[in-house]
Every structure is written in structure tokens, then in C-alpha cells.
Design goal:
By secondary structure, the protein is mainly beta. Helix content is 0%, strand content 49%.
């Protein structure tokens, strides 16, 4: 029902635009629930108004089913959480503090006047945000996601409900608010490599500062679930072994220019959260024979981090973990 400059959409209803393209300046009142606006016209449709007034409950879904553009302008606002479907162009700020991109959705930022502030919900998107520095949050809901970001950009928050996020940017050019120096979550990478935070909360490549150092030849891995074990010296002879039949460490990282082989041929078990080699390190192997010995997944899953193909990264042991554990492979 249209009254003056208002269009009222009741709970669960949808409004479909089928015209030849125009700028929508009407305000919308959504009452008591969710509503859908569909672009099924033959020309560009630009939203340029306050889309939601009155009762503010439910979610507003904006669905572009047209081959023409759907545009969210700098004068448009929405006072409900918004889900975007289809292809969208953003020439203003985010529609709402919470905007979720459907699995089929894509979004381009084409504004230099306003920096989007809010949280994007990601479901397998690749977004180019590199035209200018942006300030926004990311909620990684599902799938493999990537955001190309300009220097000086800030992530106000970043969380994951099961998906992964790769930030494509220069090292040290993108900050994450509220973070102390240390490792970033395993599901977030920087240019495809494991990431960490520097003292200013900026994303840098993770270098895995070790708490225990061992040799590549003849080194012994301790049993310490909190240890970051670095292979830091060449050693004399032999493989790397375990101090006991079953040991747990947080991280095992190869840092030397001498190949390291972890011998599990007597059926030993190594539990670890991250296996890694640094950029210029030699090969790392876990297990001498296929299926002999066990690599047990850590409590939060298993990260395999090989930043380049300069040396082999091989797991021959049987990998053991429950179905709820996550495997993240970088490189």
C-alpha cells in the first residue's frame, strides 16, 4: 500500500521492481518480520532513500535478479540487518551495520567519498576493496573468502564461523583493531601465508618464534602441548625423534637449510596444531613410511603452512582427528 512517499511491506512479503530502470526515493515501512525487494527490471535500479522506517524487526533481503546493475547510493540507509543476493554496486556506505552476502552475491565498492563502516558477512566471496583505505569488519560465515585491501585499511573486527579469509595486501599495511602481537587465527592468512600481528596490530607474515629449539639431524621433540618447537640448527646425524611414544606440541616449524625427517616408524604419535616451514627453510617430512605412525590433529584443528614450493613438505604418517576438526592448508 503506497501512501504519499511510503511503501509498506508486511511480514514475509516481497516487492519486485520490473521497470526500465530508475532511482528509488520512496521510504519503506517493514512491519513485524522479514521482507524481500527484488530487482527484475531491464535497467539499472538505484536505491537512494531510507529503506526502513517504523518498526525495525527482522531482516531485509535485497535480491538482484536482473542483468542490469543494482546500486546502493550514498543517500540510502537501512535500519535492519541486510542480506544481499546477486550483483551489487556500492557507491555509499554499507546499507546497515550488519550486511550479509549470500553465497551467490558479489559486491563492488565504487566510492571515494565515504568509507564503509560496519560488518560484512562473507560466504565465499572475493572482494576488491583496494581503491582506497577502508574501515570495516568481517564475519567469515562459510567458504573460502578473499579481500584485496589498500594500505591504511583497518578491520574493526574479524571472526569466523567456519570459513577462511585471505587478506591480499602489502605486509604491515592492514591493521586489525584490538590485537596484540602474536599469531592470527589459522583461518586467516595474508597473501596465502600464515599471518600474525605486530606490536601495532598490523597483519604480518607469521615467523613462529620458537620456545624450544632442536636440531634437524638427531633432534628430539619434547612433550609440551604449549611448545612452539623450531628446527633451528643442522645437528650431526639421524632423524628427528620423539621423547616418548606419544607427544604433543603446539607447533613444529622447520627453519634450517638442512632437511628434517620426523621418524615415527615405531608407531609413535605426534599431536600438533601447526606444521610449518619458513620461507627459506629446507624440506620437512613427518613419517618415513606411508601410513606408519600417527599425526594427531590438535584441539583446534591442524594448520599445514608451506609458504612456497622451494622445498618439499610431506606427511606420510596417518592423520588422525575427529570430524569436527578443521584442516587449513596454506601454500
Amino acid at each position: 500500500v503506497a501512501t504519499g512517499n511510503l511503501v509498506e511491506i508486511s511480514s514475509g512479503a516481497w516487492l519486485s521492481y520490473v521497470g526500465a530502470g530508475e532511482t528509488i526515493t520512496k521510504s519503506l515501512v517493514i512491519t513485524n518480520g522479514n521482507a524481500v525487494i527484488r530487482h527484475q527490471g531491464t535497467g539499472d535500479l538505484t536505491f537512494a532513500s531510507q529503506l526502513v522506517t517504523g518498526p525495525k524487526t527482522g531482516t531485509l533481503t535485497l535480491n538482484n535478479l536482473s542483468s542490469s546493475d543494482a546500486i546502493w547510493s550514498s543517500t540510502a540507509t537501512a535500519e535492519l540487518p541486510v542480506t544481499l543476493q546477486g550483483v551489487w554496486r556500492l557507491t555509499g556506505a554499507l546499507p546497515n551495520a550488519t550486511v550479509t552476502l549470500d553465497k551467490s552475491a558479489s559486491l563492488s565498492f565504487e566510492t571515494s567519498a565515504a568509507q564503509p563502516v560496519g560488518v560484512l558477512g562473507l560466504n565465499g566471496q572475493v572482494l576488491d576493496l583496494s581503491a582506497q583505505a577502508r574501515r570495516l569488519g568481517a564475519s567469515v560465515l562459510s567458504g573460502a573468502n578473499a579481500m584485496k585491501m589498500a594500505a591504511g585499511s583497518t578491520l574493526t573486527s574479524v571472526t569466523s564461523a567456519g570459513g577462511t579469509l585471505n587478506i591480499v595486501a602489502e605486509e604491515g599495511s592492514v591493521a586489525v583493531e584490538g590485537q596484540l602481537a602474536g599469531a592470527a587465527p589459522g583461518w586467516m592468512t595474508l597473501n596465502g601465508r600464515s599471518a600474525g600481528y605486530d606490536a601495532n596490530g598490523k597483519l604480518v607474515y607469521l615467523v613462529y618464534p620458537e620456545t624450544v629449539g632442536i636440531a634437524a639431524r638427531g633432534g628430539v621433540i619434547p612433550n609440551d602441548a604449549s611448545a612452539v618447537v623450531g628446527v633451528t640448527t643442522p645437528g650431526e646425524a639421524g632423524a628427528v625423534t620423539l621423547v616418548a611414544d606419544a607427544v604433543a606440541v603446539q607447533t613444529l616449524v622447520q627453519k634450517t637449510d638442512v632437511a628434517a625427517v620426523v621418524d615415527l616408524s615405531a608407531g609413535q604419535t605426534l599431536a600438533v596444531g601447526t606444521l610449518a616451514r619458513t620461507q627459506d627453510a629446507a624440506a620437512l617430512e613427518v613419517g618415513r613410511e606411508k601410513g606408519v605412525g600417527t599425526l594427531a590433529v590438535g584441539a583446534d584443528g591442524l594448520v599445514l603452512d608451506n609458504p612456497n614450493g622451494a622445498a618439499d613438505f610431506t606427511v606420510r604418517a596417518t592423520v588422525s582427528g575427529t570430524a569436527d576438526k578443521v584442516l587449513i592448508k596454506n601454500g
